[in-house]
Design brief:
alpha/beta
Length: 259
């Protein structure tokens, strides 16, 4: 199982939308995918229409100052993508925020998720982790467990500064996980007619950072699809944004094929 963290310090940059649609398209391409919601806000869980009121979430897997009470395999919910194909989701809820506080005092706190995922490695081809918008102990767990990082970003100055800080944080964790590499920066909510968006792209192209060729444009359809609990690529399959996510997924599949 190849583990990829979808991460950035900043919120609202497209992490959840990217994780859901990449996961869905990988399923359609024949991969068995585990999607982990590691954000206490549980946006990914809600966006897939999962009603998670019954105490079976990543909070029970991660635990707090004490170990978790469930393995990931006990909380996974299967979301149908196509006939006989499913996206396997490990949901989150707000109790994960309390767990996060307890984790800071726990021995080996950086490796809790890595150990949990090791027990289901044989069950999936790819694991995508939707990270919270901060360098919390939860994000550190994701970056310690993964082999690659996809970092969505908005094409504007404040977000580029935040991206720089995130890259520095990723580099600072090299001792914990020397295998974690930035696979690419994905530009989201891009509008080619806006000069400052074009300028931001030029800055990124000159930065030396790996940059996905695909640009994901802005659309209200993403919010609509989340409102009805479906991936954008399923809700609006012929839309331009869905086409862009398919192009992006092909770039990711090319990398997966080399692993």
């Amino acid at each position: 199982m190849i583990i990829i963290a979808v991460a950035n310090h900043k919120g609202g940059v497209g992490k959840t939308t990217t994780a859901i649609n990449l996961g869905s398209l990988l399923v359609q391409a024949g991969y068995k995918v585990l999607l982990v919601d590691l954000d206490p806000q549980a946006s990914l869980t809600a966006s897939l229409g999962i009603d998670n009121r019954f105490g079976r979430s990543m909070a029970e897997v991660m635990g707090g100052s004490d170990p978790g009470t469930m393995g990931i395999e006990k909380i996974v919910i299967d979301i149908p993508i196509e006939d006989h194909f499913y996206l396997h989701v490990a949901p989150s809820d707000l109790t994960l925020a309390n767990c996060e506080l307890g984790l800071t005092a726990r021995l080996g706190r950086e490796n809790v998720l890595k150990k949990a995922l090791s027990k289901v490695r044989a069950n999936y081809h790819v694991c995508l982790i939707d990270c919270p918008p901060s360098l919390s102990i939860l994000t550190v767990n994701a970056l310690t467990a993964c082999q690659g990082v996809i970092s969505p970003v908005l094409p504007q100055a404040a977000d580029l500064r935040g991206l720089k800080l995130f890259i520095q944080s990723l580099e600072s964790l090299e001792d914990l996980n020397p295998d974690a590499k930035l696979l690419g920066v994905l530009i989201c909510q891009f509008e080619s007619r806006l000069n400052h968006h074009q300028e931001a792209v030029e800055i990124l192209e000159k930065s030396g950072l790996p940059l996905y060729e695909t640009r994901i444009g802005k659309t209200i359809k993403a919010a609509e699809s989340a409102g009805v609990g479906r991936p954008l690529v399923d809700y609006d399959p012929s839309g331009q944004r869905s086409k862009e996510y398919r192009e992006f997924t092909r770039e990711v599949i090319t990398w997966l094929g080399k692993q």
